């Protein structure tokens, strides 16, 4: 009995609420002559939209066709190298974020020109710099620099190097065809031939000069060839008839050396007239 009574009370409440809701809706004022506006794009706007969509589609198709044509003409493939060809020259420019030119590489029929702050050539294996050039200096990092031209290498100014060495089994030659060859060092110049001769030849005069030290000749034999020989008249008849085998080395006041036949004493004064000829 209690359960059925509760159900009847709930149904009455629901019926009452529905009646009140329906009565409120009927009592709401209705707007007279209400106008309905359609929602969407109609007329010439719709046709313009379709036209722009069609134009965008045609532009995409043309761009795709041009891209495919450029790839085919330029031979852009995954396995083949990139080839750039031109009837005149090929120029590659590099610019910064402000549009300023920072580097340029031009390949022409007569020359290959590169304009940049620094130009480098690196090894493919370890990335070591083989050649670099800038405004201040040029650096060659290869293990060996080989010049195969018949005229060699020409330098307009000085060349600094700690070591000059010829190739194995080849002679090293320093030559100045028209001017002088000067070798200078503040701590000394050393020339040695470990397994051969040392020769110094000249057309005119050979000067050995030491401003503060001495000239030291150290050898088992020291030979001075083609020295002039002076003569003197001896009072001894035996000395004139005998063959002269021993000579005396004499020095003129100007430093000239000459030979004088040896006697019991010094004969340099007797044959010193040879100093007047020099």
From TrEMBL:
How does this protein lie in the membrane?
Single-pass type II membrane protein
Q: What is its main location?
A: membrane
Q: Which residues cross the membrane?
A: 49-71
Record's keyword terms, sorted: Cell membrane, Cytoplasm, Cytoskeleton, Disulfide bond, Glycoprotein, Membrane, Signal-anchor, Transmembrane, Transmembrane helix
Top-level lineage group: Eukaryota
- InterPro entries, sorted: Sarcoglycan, Sarcoglycan_gamma/delta/zeta
According to its UniProt entry, the protein's GO biological process terms are: cardiac muscle tissue development; heart contraction
The compartments listed are:
Cell membrane, Sarcolemma; Cytoplasm, Cytoskeleton
| Any one cellular-component term (Gene Ontology) | cytoskeleton
Q: Which Pfam families match?
A: Sarcoglycan_1
Q: Which family does it belong to?
A: Belongs to the sarcoglycan beta/delta/gamma/zeta family.
Name by which UniProt lists this protein: Zeta-sarcoglycan isoform X3
Native species: Panthera pardus (Leopard)
Gene, per the UniProt record: SGCZ
């Amino acid at each position: 009995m209690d359960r059925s009574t509760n159900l009847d009370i709930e149904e009455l409440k629901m019926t009452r609420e529905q009646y009140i809701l329906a009565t409120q809706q009927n009592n709401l004022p209705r707007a007279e002559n209400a106008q309905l506006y359609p929602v969407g794009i109609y007329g010439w706007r719709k046709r313009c939209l379709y036209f722009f969509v069609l134009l965008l589609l045609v532009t995409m198709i043309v761009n795709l066709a041009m891209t495919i044509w450029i790839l085919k003409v330029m031979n852009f493939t995954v396995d083949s190298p990139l080839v750039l060809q031109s009837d005149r020259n090929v120029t590659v420019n590099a610019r910064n974020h402000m549009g300023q030119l920072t580097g340029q590489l031009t390949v022409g029929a007569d020359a290959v020109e590169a304009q940049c702050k620094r130009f480098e050539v690196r090894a493919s294996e370890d990335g070591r710099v083989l050649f670099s050039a800038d405004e201040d200096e040029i650096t060659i990092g290869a293990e060996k620099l080989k010049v195969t031209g018949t005229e060699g290498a020409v330098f307009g100014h000085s060349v600094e190097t700690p070591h000059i060495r010829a190739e194995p089994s080849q002679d090293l030659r320093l030559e100045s065809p028209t001017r002088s060859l000067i070798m200078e060092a503040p701590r000394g110049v050393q020339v040695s031939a470990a397994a051969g001769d040392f020769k110094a030849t000249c057309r005119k005069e050979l000067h050995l000069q030491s401003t503060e030290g001495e000239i030291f000749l150290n050898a088992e034999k020291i030979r001075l060839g083609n020295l002039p020989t002076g003569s003197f008249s001896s009072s001894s008849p035996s000395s004139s008839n005998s063959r002269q085998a021993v000579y005396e080395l004499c020095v003129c006041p100007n430093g000239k050396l000459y030979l004088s036949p040896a006697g019991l004493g010094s004969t340099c004064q007797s044959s010193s007239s040879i100093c007047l000829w020099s």
